[in-house]
Amino acid sequence: MSTRTMRNIVIFAGLAGLLAVALVGCARTTTTTGSEPQAKSLASTLQSGSEAMPRTISVSGNGKASAPPDVAEIQLGVETIKTDASLAVSESTERMTAVMGVLKEMNVEDKDVQTVNYSMWVEEVYDKEGQPTGEMRYHVVNEVSIKLRDLTKTGEVLQKALEAGANKVSSISFSVADPVALQREARDQAIADARAKAEQLAAGLGAHLGSLHQASEYGGVVVPVAAPMMGKGVGGGAVPVSGGEFSITVEIQVVFDIAE
After folding, report:
1. Are 108 and 65 in contact (CB under 8 A)?
2. What's the total number of domains in the chain?
3. Claim to verify: residue 60 and residue 35 sit in the same structural domain
4. Of 31, 48, 91, 116, which one's alpha carbon is 20 to 30 angstroms from that of 222?
5. 100 shares its domain with 118
């Protein structure tokens, strides 16, 4: 082997060694440079998350206020069934006119009587074997909603309306004309209930209740409660009805800060 060839081999080996060292250094630099920011980022995230977690107590409060109802709402009317459409309509009109006359006699104001349903439909008649007979029946329904502000008349109005020709009573309900006072009373009770719960939790856990953080309200639920019967019964000239008790419930959800 010539001297020149030997020299070239030595130079090539030296260059290869330098290249290997450079690659190792780059790898170390890349690894070191990438890991430090990741570690710092993770630590910052954990620290940030810990600081952002709120120190609060969340509770619900419930309140209920009740009062005797002072308004009754009755939905009643006339249903007629005839094989002739015009007869069904005329009979319905005649009977409903009589019912409206009774309401006038009972001093129910016009603003408290509202038509809520007037409908008509046809029914095809079938025999016992399920075969059509060719006969048609016409149904006519006329219903009104009646608001009574004197509950002592409720049973009597029902009785006289039925005697006048009404043969359909869909519903009867009781309420109060102005529920705002009851809502406020129920809300005050819910607030007091929520604060008492929060204070108990804080004291039991060795903490101190701070300022209000958040509040929301749910409620306005009507709860009927049974009451003594009103009216004298059918034999005494009035349908027996029960006014019950009108109640409103309110629920609130509140969040308090925990004081340092």
Report:
1. no
2. 3
3. no
4. 116
5. yes
